[in-house]
C-alpha cells in the first residue's frame, strides 16, 4: 500500500449553472509527481484553489498530510499551507527586491529567530540547488524567463514544503529551457523528497516529469495512470484527441 499525502473524494464545485467539478476522486502518493491535464476551463486551477481552501467546495472530502480539511481551524489551515509550495505560472517574484531578498522574504516572514548566518546558508544552498548562485544580487528584471522560474521554485522550496503544486511550469518557455525546468522538477523530487501535482498542457513536460497522469474531462478524472496507459492506448475520444492535438509523435 502506498502512502497517500492527498486524498480527494466526491468533490463537487459549481459556479451558478457551471458545474466544474462533478465528483472528483484523486490520490497523490508520497514521493510522486502527478500530472493533471485537461482542456482550458476544465477546472484544474479550481481544484488547486480548493486544495488550499482559497475556494470552498460545495461537497466532498479532502485529506492532506493526514488532516481532514473540514475539521481544521484557520490557524491549523495556515500551518498546513506552509507545508505546500506553489510554483505559479507567472513566477511571482517581487520586482523591487533582489533575488536574495526574494528568497529571504518567506523565511523571515514565517520563521522567527533565524540568525543571519542561517538565512544566508539557506538562500545560498537553494540558489546552488537551482543552479543560479551568480544571480544572488540581481533584480528579477535582469533574469531570463527560465531563470525567473528557477528562482520562483527556489523561493517556494525555502520553507521545505512536503507538497509542491506547479502551475504550467513550462508555459512560455523555449524548448531547451523547458527541458531544464522539467529536469528541475525531477531534481526537486529527488533532493527534497516532495510529492507534487504538476498542472500542464505540455505533454512533453507531462511525459518527462509525471509518474502518473490524471486527465480531467467533464468534471471528473476519466483516466489515471502512466503516460503509456493513459495516452498511447487511449480509446476515449476526449483523451485521444487531447494527445493527437498536443503531441508530436
Ligand atoms: N471565482 C470564479 N467564479 C466563477 N467562475 C469561476 C471562478 N473560477 C473559475 N471559474 C470557472 O470555472 C471553470 C474552470 O476554471 P479553471 O480556471 O479551473 O480552468 P483551468 O482548467 O485551470 O483552465 P486553464 O487551463 O485555461 O488555466 C471555468 O469555466 C471558469 O470560468
Structure description:
The chain has a domain of 150 residues: 3-Layer(aba) Sandwich (Rossmann fold), CATH 3.40.50. It starts with a strand and ends with a helix. With 249 residues, it is of the alpha/beta class. The longest helix has 18 residues. It is 39% helix and 26% strand. It contains 9 helices and 10 strands. The strands form 2 sheets. A 6-stranded mixed sheet has the order 6-7-8-3-9-10, sandwiched between helices. Strands 2-1-4-5 form a 4-stranded antiparallel sheet, covered by helices on one side. The structure holds adenosine-5'-triphosphate. The site of adenosine-5'-triphosphate has 11 residues, from strand 2 and helix 1.
Features:
249 residues; alpha/beta; Rossmann fold; 6-stranded mixed sheet; 9 helices; globular; binds adenosine-5'-triphosphate; ABC_transporter-like_ATP-bd
Written as H for each helix and E for each strand, in order along the chain, the element string is EEEHEEHEHHHEHEHEEHH
**Quick one: CATH class of the domain at 1-83 and 163-175 and 196-249?**
Alpha Beta
SS content category = alpha/beta
Largest sheet: 6 strands, mixed
- Using the coordinates shown, work out and report the CATH topology of the domain at 1-83 and 163-175 and 196-249: Rossmann fold
Which CATH architecture of the domain at 1-83 and 163-175 and 196-249?
3-Layer(aba) Sandwich
Helix content: 25-40%
- Mean pLDDT reading: 91
Number of strands: 10
Q: Please mark out the parts with pLDDT under 50 across 5 or more consecutive residues, or reply none.
A: none
State the shape: globular
Domain ABC transporter: 6-243
Keywords: ATP-binding, Nucleotide-binding, Transport
InterPro entries: AAA+_ATPase, ABC_transporter-like_ATP-bd, ABC_transporter-like_CS, P-loop_NTPase
Protein name: Phospholipid/cholesterol/gamma-HCH transport system ATP-binding protein
Amino acid at each position: 500500500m502506498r502512502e497517500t499525502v492527498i486524498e480527494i473524494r466526491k468533490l463537487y464545485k459549481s459556479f451558478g449553472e457551471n458545474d466544474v467539478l462533478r465528483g472528483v476522486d484523486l490520490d497523490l502518493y508520497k514521493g510522486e509527481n502527478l500530472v493533471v491535464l485537461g482542456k482550458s476551463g476544465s477546472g484544474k486551477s479550481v481544484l488547486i484553489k480548493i486544495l488550499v481552501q482559497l475556494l470552498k467546495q460545495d461537497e466532498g472530502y479532502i485529506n492532506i498530510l493526514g488532516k481532514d480539511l473540514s475539521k481544521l481551524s484557520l490557524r491549523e489551515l495556515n500551518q498546513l499551507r506552509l507545508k505546500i509550495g506553489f510554483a505559479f505560472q507567472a513566477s511571482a517574484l517581487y520586482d523591487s527586491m533582489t533575488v536574495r531578498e526574494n528568497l529571504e522574504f518567506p523565511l523571515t516572514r514565517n520563521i522567527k529567530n533565524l540568525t543571519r548566518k542561517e538565512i544566508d546558508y539557506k538562500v545560498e544552498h537553494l540558489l546552488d540547488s537551482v543552479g543560479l548562485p551568480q544571480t544572488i544580487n540581481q533584480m528579477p528584471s535582469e533574469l531570463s524567463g527560465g531563470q525567473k522560474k528557477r528562482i520562483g521554485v527556489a523561493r517556494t522550496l525555502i520553507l521545505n514544503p512536503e507538497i509542491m503544486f506547479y502551475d504550467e511550469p513550462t508555459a512560455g518557455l523555449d524548448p531547451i529551457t523547458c527541458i531544464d525546468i522539467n529536469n528541475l522538477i525531477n531534481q526537486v523530487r529527488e533532493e527534497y523528497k516532495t510529492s507534487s501535482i504538476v498542472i500542464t498542457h505540455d505533454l512533453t513536460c507531462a511525459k518527462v516529469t509525471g509518474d502518473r497522469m490524471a486527465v480531467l474531462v467533464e468534471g471528473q478524472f476519466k483516466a489515471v495512470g502512466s503516460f503509456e496507459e493513459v495516452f498511447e492506448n487511449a480509446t476515449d475520444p476526449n483523451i485521444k484527441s487531447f494527445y493527437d492535438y498536443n503531441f508530436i509523435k
